[in-house]
Design goal:
By secondary structure, the protein is mostly helical. It has five helices and no strands. The radius of gyration is 33 Å and the shape is rod-shaped. The termini are far apart.
């Protein structure tokens, strides 16, 4: 006899194989990369001491992705483009007809442009 009771024998016994993970990664995401993108990811993962897949998962969790412009913001840019076109036309007329005749129109247009730029810059992403 070894001197161990039946209870001690069962407590020391471990299950064979690796312990089960609490969270299993069962989903796959296929991503197409250019060779340069792959080299960049592999290089950054190596510097961080991680495998590429682990680096990619961590990067995805901490990445900040900015949404495309909203319909309102797109309208602001379109309006700004139109105002810039008007300003060019007024500049041409100022050269032809004289600057003083168009000064009020130019000031009003510049004010609208400043308002739009304030809206655009105030809407930080």
């Amino acid at each position: 006899m070894t001197g161990l009771t039946e209870k001690e024998k069962t407590q020391k016994r471990r299950l064979p194989g690796r312990p089960k993970k609490t969270v299993s990664r069962s989903d796959f995401l296929m991503v197409r990369l250019t060779p340069m993108e792959r080299v960049l990811i592999d290089g950054r993962a190596k510097k961080a001491g991680l495998r590429s897949s682990e680096w990619f998962r961590r990067a995805a969790k901490s990445a900040k992705v900015f949404p495309r412009f909203t319909a309102e913001e797109t309208g602001w840019f379109r309006m700004l483009s139109g105002l810039a076109n008007n300003l060019n036309q007024l500049t041409h007329l100022a050269h032809v007809a004289g600057l003083f005749s168009l000064a009020l129109k130019c000031q009003a247009l510049v004010k609208k442009i400043e308002e739009l730029l304030t809206k655009i810059s105030g809407n930080d992403r």
